[in-house]
Design goal:
The protein is α/β, with parallel strands linked by helices. The protein starts with 12 loop residues before the first strand and ends with a strand. The protein has nine helices and nine strands. The chain has helices spanning 62-70, 73-76, 94-106, 124-131, 145-152, 157-168, 187-197, 216-222, 236-247; strands at 13-23, 31-36, 58-61, 82-87, 110-115, 135-139, 173-179, 203-210, 253-254. Helix 1 crosses helix 3 (94-106), helix 3 packs parallel to helix 4 (124-131) and helix 7 (187-197) runs parallel beside helix 9. Helix content is 33%, strand content 21%. The structure holds iron/sulfur cluster (SF4).
């Protein structure tokens, strides 16, 4: 007699650091933000130093996450609000994020990927993720690769390829550029940024984010040295100057005044 074998498929799991239920700075409107665990960059100014470890944090399923989110649905839905996958680096868990975003779309919830663009490769998993991503917020940390390697610990080659891929698929994108004194605030760096993004029609917004050291205590808690100790946020004139350089390429950048 044939034996009936029933197999149950394990649900895909993500590894998250934490979530924030009423985020207002990571995408349009009010957002439910999941900070995923793990990052392959090593930014000197990282304000989420505690998210780097790929094995830390806790595992979660899409169903568990959706149960949490649905209770906030009425708050996050208006004004283009929704969910944001942040980190750490959410793209390292692209398969899980795609499954989660798909579930959000089934509930009519807007999805945003906040990423450093450091995808291992542009493969089917990334394409599946992009199919269910409404908006990408992409950090361009430094176009000069020599400086990028010192600032973020890795080459920017994959990041720039990812930016070009977003252009190719015409994905709605916001660019974020952190203005770090001594690292990204010089004219040459701003010109490189302007040249790189000037023809990208998919970019609908460029934000200049002044460096701050609010996350420095997390480095100390881990027992790690915060090497930008003593670096002050850039003055308003620096942001004005970078904004003007970008404008000369037809790129309208904004920053909070
Ligand atoms: S990409 Fe983000 S999380 Fe990763 S090291 Fe840089 S600032 Fe930190």
């Amino acid at each position: 007699m044939n034996q009936l074998i029933v197999t149950t498929k394990e649900p895909i799991k993500g590894r998250m650091h934490s979530f924030e239920s009423f985020g207002t700075v990571d995408g349009p409107g009010i957002r439910f933000i999941v900070f995923f665990q793990g990052c392959l960059m090593r930014c000197l100014y990282c304000h989420n130093r505690d998210t780097w470890d790929l094995k830390a944090g806790r595992e979660i399923t899409v169903d568990e996450l959706m149960k949490e989110i649905v209770s906030y649905k009425n708050f996050i839905m208006p004004n283009d609000g929704g969910v944001t996958a942040s980190g750490g680096e959410a793209i390292l868990q692209a398969e899980f994020v795609a499954a989660w975003f798909r579930a959000c779309h089934e509930e009519g919830i807007h999805t945003c990927l906040d990423t450093n663009g450091y995808a291992r490769q542009i493969d089917q998993t990334i394409e599946n993720l992009m199919d269910v991503t409404d908006l990408v917020m992409l950090d361009l940390k430094q176009i000069n690769d020599e400086i990028h390697q010192k600032l973020a610990g890795v080459s920017n080659k994959r990041v720039l390829e990812f930016a070009q891929y977003l252009q190719k698929i015409n994905k709605r994108t916001w660019i974020r550029y952190v203005v770090v004194p001594g690292w990204t605030d010089d004219d040459a760096s701003a010109h490189l940024l302007g040249q790189f993004i000037k023809d990208m029609k998919n970019i609908e917004r460029v934000d200049l984010l002044p460096y701050h050291s609010l996350g420095a205590y997390k480095w100390k808690n881990i027992g790690d040295k915060y090497s930008l100790e003593g670096v002050e946020p850039p003055p308003r004139e620096t942001l004005d100057r970078i904004q003007a350089i970008l404008e000369s390429y037809g790129v309208a950048a904004t920053f909070s005044k």
